[in-house]
Amino acid sequence: MTALVLAPGPAADLLIRGAHALDPGAGVDRPADLLIRDGVIAELGAPGSLPAPDGAEVIDAEGHHLFPGFVDPHVHLRTPGQEQKEDLETGTRAAAAGGFCAVVAMPNTDPPVDSPELISSLRKAAERDARVGIGFLAAITRGLEGEQLTEMAELRGAGALGFTDDGQPVSSAAVLRLAMQYQRLCGGVLALHEEDVGLSRGGALHEGQVATELGVRGIPGLAESTMVTRDVALAEYERARVHIQHVSCQESVAAVSAAKQRGAGVTAEVTPHHLLLTEDDVRSLDTRLKMNPPLRTERDRQALLDGLRSGAIDCVATDHAPHAREDKEVPFEQAAMGTTGLETAFAALHTGLVRPGLISLGLLVERMTAGAEVLGLPRPGIASGQPANLCLADLEASWRPGEGGWESRAENCCFAGRRLQGRVLLTVAGGRVAYRERSWTLTPA
Amino acid sequence: MRQRHLLSISELDREDIERILARAASFAEVFGREIKKTPALRGRLVVNLFYEASTRTRSSFELAAKTLSADVLNFAAAGSSVEKGESLKDTVATLTAYSPDAIVIRSPHAGAAALVAGWTPASVVNAGDGKHEHPTQALLDLYTLIRRLGSLEGREVWIVGDILHSRVARSNLLALRKMGAHVTVCGPPTLIPRGIEELGCDVRYELDGLSGADVVYALRMQNERMSEPFVPSLREYAAQYQITSRRLGARQLLMHPGPVNRGVELSGEVVDSPQSLIEEQVQAGVIVRMAILFELLAVPSPGRASHLEISPPPAPEPQPA
Question: What value of ipTM does the predicted structure carry?
Answer without folding.
Answer: 0.87
